[in-house]
Amino acid sequence: MPRHQKQRKKFMEHSADYLVLKGISKSFGHFNALNDINLHIAEGEFVCFLGPSGCGKTTLLRIIAGLETQNQGQIIQKGKDISFVKPVKRDYGIVFQSYALFPNLSIAENIAYGLVNRRQSSSVIKARVTELLQLAGLPDSGDKYPGQLSGGQQQRIALARALAMSPGLLLLDEPLSALDALERVRLRTEIRQLQQRLGVTTIMVTHDQEEALTMADRIVVMNHGVIEQIGTPEQIYLQPRTQFVASFVGKVNVLRATALGAGRFRIGILEFDCPVWGDKFVAGQAVKVYLRPEDIVVHRDQPSQPSSAERPRGTITKMEFLGAYCHACIEVEGLDKQSVTAAIPLSEVHQNDLKAGTKIFLELVPAKARIFPVTKEASAVNAEAA
């Protein structure tokens, strides 16, 4: 097991529950925004709510903050029932997408706002503001105003203001979505490092898969008001439990196939063994095979001791340059007119002179495949084998 996976496992085994959600449901008129949400979050954990627009992730965050009231369910924070406690009485800091800084107050006054309302002494406020400006990487910006700062700098100040009262829980509502790509990468690294340094339990709402995969200890994937899967980034990406998770998180090839029984499957003329799924499907059952682009190996020449059933021939129809690697769209012979996308390192692209029109041979990695029945909704039971 890789080192970072061991660290996450050890973290989860030795951390107590800080926030517990039990049976949270919320409806707006006839629309069910959330349906029976159950979740345990450990103290010091960084959790991302990930999902498409309208899946309920922001509504759930607002319920935790007390800005919305659930129709059913219970919220326990550090052993205390806060299900219907007013927002001002809850122990959290929150950062919004829009920064929400007071334009007529200086940066120092923005950070100090909550401390002033709590009637802290001027010396305590000054020391705390100085500390937070240092943490935000803007030690000399206290006298400036929000309009004088860039978007990334303003978001750092919004984060500092949220941390001013030393909350036990930090809530982040898509805090990076208004920033440019380079600033987002820089700031997400800084936020994660700061969270780890302070040890504050954090929940972040995002629709950006890369943010969730790089920042979170665990990801809660949501869709249509329910939780599809909870797991580490590695589990979510490599072991999706439903078709939605497999399709939503990362790029994936979805291929029509037929189960032959005893862990053997056929896609067109291609037959392959995948023993881990042996007792999940009966012979003749229609299935879908989900395979990541990086799990399709491209050979320029026919491999030694070839088998046309296992190494089908294909033609590259399009090359998509993505920096360190390329996505090759491939029309494959014998796969019932199904095309696939393979991820190929740029060095191999140049070495083998791969381009549109190039004839190649494919090698699938069936051990990495996720296989689901052909139904409207994926069956998590059929995705248990990992």
Automatic annotation (TrEMBL):
One of its GO terms (molecular function) is ATP hydrolysis activity. Residues 19-249 form the ABC transporter domain. Keywords: ATP-binding, Cell inner membrane, Cell membrane, Membrane, Nucleotide-binding, Translocase, Transport. InterPro entries: AAA+_ATPase, ABC_SmlMolc_Importer, ABC_transporter-like_ATP-bd, ABC_transporter-like_CS, AminoethylPonate_ABC_PhnT2, Mo/tungstate-bd_C_term_dom, P-loop_NTPase, Transp-assoc_OB_typ2. It holds the Pfam family TOBE_2. GO terms for biological process: quaternary ammonium group transport. PANTHER family: PUTRESCINE TRANSPORT ATP-BINDING PROTEIN POTG, SPERMIDINE/PUTRESCINE IMPORT ATP-BINDING PROTEIN POTA. This is 2-aminoethylphosphonate ABC transporter ATP-binding protein. It comes from Undibacterium jejuense. GO terms for cellular component: ATP-binding cassette (ABC) transporter complex. Signal peptide: none annotated. The keyword Translocase applies. Transmembrane segments: none annotated.
